[in-house]
Amino acid sequence: MSEEKIIKEKDPWFSPRNFKLLKNPLNLENPVTVQVLGICSALAVTVQMKPAIVMALSVTVVTAFSNLIIALIRDTIPSRIRIIVQLVVVAALVIIVDQLLKAYVYDVSKKLSVFVGLIITNCILMGRLEAFAMANKPWPSFIDGIGNGLGYGAILVIIAFFRELLGSGKIYGFDVIPKAFYEAGYVNNGLMILPPMALMTIGVIIWIQRSKNPVLQEDN
Amino acid sequence: MKALRNYLDRIKPQFREGGKFEKLHSTFDAFETFLYVPDSTTTSGSHIRDAVDLKRTMSVVLLALMPALLFGIWNTGYQHYLSLGQTASFGQIFSFGLWKVLPIVVVAYASGLAVEFIFAQYRKHEVNEGYLVSGMLIPLVMPVDIPLWMVAVSSIFAVILGKEAFGGTGMNVFNPALLARAFIFFAYPAQITGDTIWTAGLTKGTGVIDGFSGATPLARAASGAIDKLPSMHDLFFGFIPGSIGETSKLAIIIGAAILILSGIGSWRIMVAGLLGGVTITLIFNAVAANAYMTIDPLTQVMMGSFLFGMVFMATDPVTAAQTNRGKWIYGFLAGFFAIMVRVFNPAYPEGTMLAILLMNTFAPLIDHFVIESNIKRRLKRAKAVV
User: Fold this and answer.
1) Residue B77 above 80 pLDDT?
2) A119, CA 20 to 30 Å: which among A17, A56, B127, B296?
């Protein structure tokens, strides 16, 4: 562990540095649109907003607490088996989350089906554990986990909003497109329900984000 | 004409830098170069000198599309009166067709061009003329009863995600007109598949004479009713239901001749596409596992949008393969898959759209390998000499 940088100085709990950990993943270091991680689940659970929000919260909880736990025990993990240790922690948390979902929001849990279990293999989690929690103190790691979970969740909710609105004419399960529209010939867009459209929506979000932030554009 | 030129010259300074309408520069430029050959020349470097620029090229393609469009307008009226069992004069038929088709053309142009102009202003580049052709192709591949707002949505989708996302005219991976059709096909399947949509005003069982089904030849073939296919005469001249521009093979062949003679459309792709289609049909004929597979190559090629796609869509110079050998491979596979999808997959009555879009994806790869093999061959030759 000697080669990894550890933040030595005492930081207040909500220092600008910690605040940045929370804020950066929402835009400039977004795990989905900038690092392009966790795309599969973003495609799978974004047909409607409700599952997307539940999924976003689940991932946030798991990232935050796995980051916290790994950061707490980071000095005691032998480097050669660290991935296994990380997986055990994540898996335990995912099982807890899965059981909670089954107990309290059973219908959503059924819709999310395997994708809650697949949080274990979500690249964002492993990425944060490897890149951040293994080298930082528990509190910044916890914040970093929340930030990345929210960054992932924000994209998920945006995609789900458009897919549900245009694909089913609903927002969070409520009909928002007036009946008169349908009578006048409006038809819900079937392509929005299909997974390719989630990918295209992510593409458009990346396009807009990049044209707004020149930092993200590569030199030609 | 002189007066128009003078007028343009008079208002031109206002669109230059510092002028009143500086922001609308590209809009002015688009209209000026649409009306007149631009008088500006490049000042440095070596350039290929040619009498035609991109706008003139597109005009030739538009000209090639005219026979298909005119016939499509007539056929729209013809099918309509046929379904009602009424006889109508040529004028009646044509004006009914015009009444149905013209709004689709106008909407496709207006919505797509609006997006193009907005992006051109925003990015401060000229309005490109690629859409002149796409805007004509989109109506020609639509069924006549398509709601106009769907035409608008699909045109906007195709221009934004098909062209502007990749950097505008000349940078697109997929043919925008096909993308617009694919969008409608997957987004609003009820409005673009089935038997009733191909004839204007046709609804099941009301006011329709007995024996008129409105099913396209492809739909009949897919249901196994190959003895009910229209005669070769009808298929060739196009007295059949179908998308607006695809029915008359005669009109398409005239268009193909214009494209080939002017050197704008690649004859290699067209011939290779036909070869591909014939090859897969002959294979099917040999297997003959169901009725659809026994249809002879000529009928297969004449049905649906196969010819239209191979002549006007597959030859799109931007999305097709660029190398000559690549064009043969690209065209052959496009024709091959078009018939294969049509016969194998009951969910997709026509495969031309999907086959060409698929080959659009592979065109750069095909070119890459053609060039690589060229390099290898020449290296070998150079080594042999040394």
Assistant:
1) yes
2) A17
- Asked whether residue B279 is assigned to any structural domain, the reply reads yes
Measured CA to CA, the distance from residue A208 to residue B361 in angstroms comes to: 24
Tokens of B316: 């799109």
Residue type, B92: Q
Residue B13 located in a structural domain:
no
- Separation between Cα atoms, residue B175 and residue B168, nearest integer Å: 12
By C-alpha distance, the chain A residue nearest B153 is A189
- Residue with the bigger pLDDT between B187 and A42: it is B187
Which of B149, B165, B189 is nearest residue A190 as measured by Cβ atoms?
Answer: B189
Q: Position of tokens 């790691």?
A: A141
Q: Can you read off the two tokens belonging to residue A127?
A: 């990425």
Q: CA–CA separation, A188 vs B152, rounded Å?
A: 15
Question: For residues B189 and A193, what is the distance between their CA atoms, to the nearest angstrom?
Answer: 13
Query: Is residue A61's pLDDT more than 80?
Result: yes
Average pLDDT over residues B304-315: 92
For residue B197, CA distances in Å to A91, B204, B220, B317 come to 53, 10, 15, 32
Across the interface, whether the CB atoms of B187 and A192 are under 8 A apart is answered yes
Distance, CA of A201 to CA of A158 (rounded, Å) = 9
- CA-based nearest distance B205→chain A, Å: 21
Q: Which residues span the domain enclosing B267?
A: 54-208+215-375
Q: How many structural domains does chain B have?
A: 1
187-226 of B, contacting A, C-beta below 8 A: 187-191
Q: Kindly state the tokens that stand for A45.
A: 């659970």
Long-range CB contact pairs, B371-376, < 8 A, 24+: B371/B323
User: Cβ of A191 and B186 within 8 Å?
Assistant: yes
Question: What is the percent of chain B where pLDDT is above 70?
Answer: 91
Closest by alpha carbon to B252, among B185, B311, B178, B196?
B311
What is the C-alpha to C-alpha distance for residues B270 and A164, in angstroms, rounded to an integer?
Answer: 42
Q: Judge contact between A67 and A144, C-beta under 8 A.
A: yes
Question: Is some CB atom of chain A closer than 8 A to the CB atom of B166?
Answer: no
Find the angle CA(B55)-CA(B179)-CA(A31) to the nearest 5 degrees.
Answer: 115
| CB within 8 Å: A189 and B187 | yes
Q: Please state, in angstroms and rounded to a whole number, the distance separating the CA atoms of residues A107 and B341.
A: 38
Bridge partners (DSSP) listed for residue A171 = A174
- State how far Cα A208 lies from the chain centre: 19
- Give me the residues paired with residue A175 across strands: A170
Overall average pLDDT of the B18-41 stretch: 71
* Torsion sign (Cα): B135, B137, B139, B143: negative
Closest CA to A124 of A33, A47, A50, A38: A38
- Token pair for residue B331? 């065209």
pLDDT tens sequence across B154-166: 999 999 998 888 8
Residue burial A144-178, b: 16+ Cβ < 10 Å; e: rest = bbbbbbbbbbbbbbbbbbbbbbbbbbbeeeeeeee
CATH of the domain at B320: 1.10.3430
Nearest alpha-carbon partner for B297 in B317, B313, B315, B274:
B274
Residue B317 lies in a domain: yes
Alpha carbons within 13 angstroms on the beta-carbon side of residue B114 total: 10
Closest residue to B187, CB basis, from A185, A191, A203 = A191
DSSP label of B290: S
